[in-house]
Fold each of these.
Amino acid sequence: MKYDSPAVLDAGPSDGVDPDEFVRAAVRWHFDPETGSRYWLDRAERLAFDPRRDVRGVDDLALFPDLSDELRQVPVADLIPRGYGGDARLLNVFDSGGTTGAPKRVVQLDDWMRHSTAQVDRRLREHGLPVGAQWLTVAPTGPHLVGDVLQRAAASLGGPGLSIDMDPRWVRKLIATGRGDEVESYTDHLVEQCRRILLTQDIGVLAATTPLLERFAREDDLLERINGSVRAIVWGGTHMDPDTRHLLATEVFPEVPLIGMYGNTMMLTALLERVGLDSSQPCVFDPVSPYVFLSVVDPATGERDTAVRVRPAGGHAGDAVADVAPVPTVRGETVIEGVY
């Protein structure tokens, strides 16, 4: 029997839904035997609380332990809620980058994808990105999330999306085993593919990782082309430190607005930097209530990234974050960024 979910769960990210009401409804839905997934229903038996009774709002999500490690081995079918019935539209299965061990997997269903695309599209339009312009995206694609997010962003703005795929896992492996010459060769390979597109196509938006933008800075022909014709740069990946951001914005690409993007696979979406910031101000990412909540917590709890807590804009729940960067080590392993 298909479950008729409360209207609050069908609302989009710009519908002004109360975050606490959304969390209550979502948790009850996911832990209801009629609608929940096999994973959550089985996991409920090993929680130290009753989710449907004890989770009354955003703050109560802290009752859950960190379950992300379990997503390394859970069968994909066990993550799909029963409440979708025969109407479940599984669009993708995404993996985390695998930096801290075996990749974790999450599923992307049609409704979440639509909400994610809508909030990214709205924020890009607020930044003044050109509608109908061609994009060049240099980012990991399947099984990674970021390439999918960027390609959908280009489509939502009505522009053809050209793309160059990259394999950050391979580059991290090369770095970890001391094969720096192969890293340089692979980076040259990426740059040459980008050159062929940038010099022959009218690219209005360039989406690339921080290391690739730094590499473009060494190529005079690409610098001239980007500053002469590209109308916006969307940068993403692991992070961009404030000094690099200021240098790229004021000296390397002074004619092109730089717009930061932050996200991870567990979010199943991406956040765009707050509108109206300049390169002398911290790059702030706001959460998207009621779908994405961020919390800056004590490092002892095992958080993956570091950030400065900022008051969120527009009444969003949780924390906004600035100067996001990866922690140096996770479980004793050095975090390697590579080309990502």
Amino acid sequence: MELTLLGTGAPAGLPRPGCPCAACATAVGADARAATALLVDDVLLLDLTPGPALAAARAGRTLHGVRQLLLSHPHDGPAQEVPPGLPAPVRVADGRRLTLISGHRVRAVALDAPGTGYEIGGPDGERLLYLPPGAGPAGLPGSPVREGAPGAPYAPAAPYSLVLLDVLGRPDALARLRAAGAVGPTTDVLAVHIDHGVPPGPELHRRLAAAGARTVPDGTTAVVGDYRAVPDLPRRTLVLGGARSGKSAEAERRLAAFPGVLYAATGGSRDGDTEWADRVAAHRSRRPASWRTAETCDLVPLLTAPDAPPLLIDCLSLWLADAMDSAGCWDEDPRRSAEAARVLAGRTAELVAAFRAATRTVVAVSNEVGSGVVPGTAAGRLFRDELGRLNAAVAAECEHVLLVTAGTALPLRG
């Protein structure tokens, strides 16, 4: 099958008409995107983009052979233009199957949001899945179910060759597709319905690559099933940043499209500290409901567990504080402080060795405190120095290292 993307943007397009935001201001040239519409083998059109005939011509295609026009989601705004000669657009009932004279097979997939997804099988046996904006398949484990949604539960038979969905808006849907086996190691995941929530250009591609996805400019034609190098996902990533820099949100975003994540929270609970409780609650509210949480500083067994799902550690700074407390590093007696330093060095070396041996995907968060004001106490300076050493040692074992400042991730390695 050949698939031509006549548009790859959100229903309102990118830039949005009249929107003054920075993302819209920089969405020019190849970064400008019309509403998503897909042309399959010149015979099947999924959704409409403004001026579809002209969009097809710019891509070197024609709509003259289109025999079926399917819509996937409700459309707000002006009436959509249907070029003369095209069949009337329809939405297929959930679960219904169509077979076109061209040999293409279509199955309507029930969703957890308004709209309909489409599974397309080509005459060559390749299969793709297309989902509308803001939607994921219904019936998968962990899926929210739309009230009154008809249709049988979604059950993919095997991984698709190509999946097109709103990766940025619904990373959890991609995670559930992976968990169900619909997205495998060789599945090409294309992000569509691109909106202005992420700046276009390098930042967009960086975030998609972290999710194992990519996007292409409007007018691109792809051959479904052709081998493509899937974005290389690092096994170990260290995310550094100062207070309120956005480092935790960046770390969580990097794993939002993957199933079964274990969140290792090293901060624990603090009886009577309402401000700390509010911080913990804010972190929990951002995590997907399918994630598991372990409140522990015993990280070595988690890092070295074989064949385990992704692990997010937040954060190494609190792990270090716990390790220094346990070792007695705050004791001012020279003999006891020397023994404490030896114990701490052993625990740190054990942790770093576990990072080196890790076979699961790991994203770890830590504070970058070496660029601020010199602490006014000996204990504060000791903690700063030990955290700097720990960050450097863990970074040496990570394929990717990021520094987050003002909510912006700056790659230091990888």
Amino acid sequence: MIVLALGLAFDVTAAIQRSLPDYTSGVQKKIEDGDTARQQLSGLYDDSNKELSRCQDGADALRSCGQAPPIEGINSWLNTPGDRPVDLKSLRGKVTLIDFWTYSCINCQRAIPHLQDWERAYKDAGLRIIGVHSPEFAFEKKRSNVISGAKKLGVTWPVALDNDLTTWDNYRNRLWPAKYLIDARGTVRYFKFGEGQYDQTETMIRELLRQADPTVVLPEPTGRAMDDLTAGRTPETYLSTLRIRGYLGTPLVDDKPAAYRFPKDPLPLNKLSLDGTWTAGYERFTAGPDARLAFSYRARNANLVLAGTGKVTVVVDGRTTKTIDVSSSPTLYRLTDDKDPRTARLELRLDEGLEAYAFTFG
């Protein structure tokens, strides 16, 4: 008890926690996928649509997980005749894939080519895809931003703008991207959180199409290779005073300009730091005079959501590699792009006034 008291007094437990790698990610996922936790994470605090708990993330067999919740509370629709809403009941007899996504999410972007393949391969056989755009950032609620993002990514299927996360909550969802498969009778039969297992999801699509129409003739599976760089890739990192992780250097000051300095020692892997003047906010960091940001990462490519008007100079391992012109609304910009995974020190030099939201890595 004395040792515990001393540890708490000197904040030793927090230091130990910060120094440990994320060995518990598998356990964390199991806990967060639990019925109680999912209610908290999804925003649901009652037993609404509780039958969805019968499904298991990425299960290897179809299950019956209750009637598909309605798509409701939608701000507006895209990619439909006259931007009219789609009623799930009108799709009875078809197999429906509900994709929860946002246009600036790199994980969602990596999944889109698979969705495009499935739509081309199986639309005539009865597959329908609906994208539920559930925003993570305030700028993702703006209809014009979503239209532009969807066009750049080649999203041609109907998209519902779920700005208040009503449908997100209806499905007890908690991750981007997430895919829910609904059979011809309107029952949820399978869901997959996050990236990966595309071949398995496609197998489930094919099985549901055969169940809907035993005479259907299906093409060969699409067989698109999936991204195999998962272990060791630097995780998504938010530039947010609440959600930032891996930060080293001058303590962050909330919501007002402050001077920062890089640490003297080299940055360890998956750590970032600031230099120059920055305003660190809840949703974004805004560059002031002489603003620089350093990040040690491992991935094939590094990406950053940026907004404002100005230039960003990209320096990798001490060598200037490119200058990016940033303009207008928040958009994901590719900072580095390598054929193979690499570990590198990334430094960004940002013009005053530019806003930075979140790093993602591919």
